[in-house]
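Researcher: We're teaching a course module on how sequence relates to structure. For the next exercise, students receive a sequence and then see the predicted structure as tokens, so they can try to spot secondary structure elements on their own. Here is the exercise chain.
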Amino acid sequence: MRKMIIAAVALAAMAAGIYVGLPAQSAPEARFATLSGQSFSTSDLRGKVVLVNFWATWCVDCVREMPKMVETYRKYAPRGYDMVAVAVQSDHPNQVADFTQRRALPFKVAVDTTGEVARRFGDVRLTPTSYLIGRDGRIIQSFVGEPDWAQLHAAIERALGPS
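Model: And here is the predicted structure for the students to work with:
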């Protein structure tokens, strides 16, 4: 019963955009298909600190946060940080490709045409939703809505370790 109450409080807090620390759980095994035709799975990302960001071209908050996602990627990529921007099922691949090209997104952009990736990550329905995954494949932190950038950067710094 206690675990159910803790989980309910954590979900309510996450829905309000507040991060609540819970014991780390393994990131779900999912297969990503990028716009460039690359295919990889969650387990292929082990050894890196990775942000998996669910977004959509029509999502105002997603579009607003994207320049900071780019900035974060450029800041930490040389130290082993990676990012996968997963366009949700309702987004058309041509629109995603156009957005990616116009914004010169430097990280991997995947299209979840079947919704399977979102289902594996707990049936993601709200965008943006992001998961920070550690080198060991465990979820360090998750954000519903635009992340608190200072908090995200601090978590990335901790996960990457000394530079």
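Model: If you want an answer key for the exercise: Confidence is low (pLDDT under 50) at residues 1-22. The beta strands are 31-33, 39-41, 49-55, 81-87, 108-111, 129-133, 139-144.
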